[in-house]
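Reopening this ticket.

The earlier resolution said the output was attached, but the attachment link was broken on my side. Pasting everything inline this time so it's all in one place.
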Amino acid sequence: MSPQQRADFVAQTLERLYPETPIPLQHHSPYTLLVAVVLSAQCTDARVNTVTPQLFALADTPEKMGQLSVEQIRQIIYPCGLSPRKSQAIAQLSDILSKQYGGQVPQNFEDLEALPGVGHKTASVVMSQAFGVPAFPVDTHIHRLAQRWQLSNGKNVVQTERDLKALFPEPIWNKLHLQMIFFGREYCPARGHYPEKCPICSVVGINGMPH
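Inline output:
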């Protein structure tokens, strides 16, 4: 199989298995999605979803978040890990959104990535899931799958993102990113993975075991 043939098979398989792609992080606005994605760094979506209801009950806008102290935020988000850094970032980005953007989340990569605690992957999630702008957020799980399926030999997520964007049509990027996450969790985990039972690896092979 060529990389393009593998990519086409991956897209067809994922669309068959996951025709619907609900966003895993609970939110009700671009701002609450942004905060949830910041919290999800090195933390599971499930854990984030146990923390955000309490946080958003107190503050679900930048202005309301600005009324909380960094320590109040930290105590609520503590279960997500890295709470000192994340609470500082949430307080700072909320202050910037309030003062510079009228409480609105900017709808472009440059301004998003300039916010504290917001990298390219976080900005990509917000742009794709909150605003519908084509993006291909690559986290460690998607990076792993792309290498495992021989869709990229990228040594970093930047190269992997470039390779995936070249293989898949732009209109499906936003949905495909979520489909890959769901598939990785259900069929293709980092550990305890059985290639012969995996609907994709059993066909395309995995890196080092080409079919």
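Reporter confirms the inline version is readable. The mean pLDDT is 95. Strands lie at 205-206, 209-210.
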